[in-house]
Write a structure and sequence with these properties.
13 strands; 6-stranded antiparallel β-sheet; elongated; alpha+beta; 7-stranded antiparallel β-sheet; 207 residues; Immunoglobulin-like
Length: 207
């Protein structure tokens, strides 16, 4: 009921309506106490909701200002992002970094934007630790991929147990620009859009 009132009446209009109702009520059938109290409660709730909306808007404006300053300062810096997307162009693409905890065969599967498999790379008996991979654009059909965005998944198959698990991975890139939208701050790494909340590391310096 409060939501319906808030969509049609402001608190001033609601108060005027209540006063008018009291002014012209039938003396022989006055407004009952319960009904009057209920209407006052509705007015109080409406006022609180409007105050909360005002605070929320002010907080959002403040956050947007901070994001704008932060985004501008990040341009040209190198960052690390938790993202399974890369951009291929001219025999080079975004570096993919992943970590494994034990000696494993690692399978890197690359897909186009429609989910079609493009390339499967197998790295045999990789040691525990962090590894980096850069796709050269080669496809399983011995051709070259077209320039654009691609997705990837990485799996590690333990040489001890034979168990295969999905491996969490990251990409590195230089911030070329920033965008602001309804979901917040987005960084442009080359031509890949990365939400700011997926950034896990910001490197000092701009080299």
């Amino acid at each position: 009921m409060i939501k319906a009132i808030s969509n049609t009446l402001g608190k001033d209009a609601f108060l005027k309506l209540l006063i008018t109702q009291l002014k012209y009520q039938d003396p022989l059938n006055p407004l009952e106490d319960k009904a009057f109290i209920a209407q006052l409660a509705q007015f109080s709730a409406l006022e609180e909701l409007q105050n909360l909306n005002k605070i929320s808007k002010e907080t959002q404006n403040f956050q947007n200002s901070l994001a704008s300053i932060l985004g501008t300062n990040l341009i040209g810096k190198n960052v690390k992002a938790k993202l399974n997307k890369i951009y291929y162009k001219d025999n080079s693409s975004t570096a993919i970094t992943f970590r494994i905890d034990e000696v494993s065969d690692v399978y890197i599967k690359i897909y186009d934007v429609f989910g079609n498999p493009i390339r499967t790379i197998v790295k045999k008996a990789l040691k525990p630790g962090e590894h980096q991979f850069i796709w050269d654009g080669e496809t399983d059909q011995n051709g070259k991929a077209q320039e654009g965005e691609y997705f990837y998944k990485i799996y590690a198959e333990s040489l001890k147990t034979g168990e295969r698990n999905y491996v969490e991975s990251y990409i590195f890139g230089k911030v070329k620009g920033v965008k602001f939208n309804d979901s917040g701050l987005t960084l442009l790494l080359d031509k890949i859009e990365v939400p700011f909340n997926l950034i896990s590391e910001i490197k000092e310096g701009r080299d």
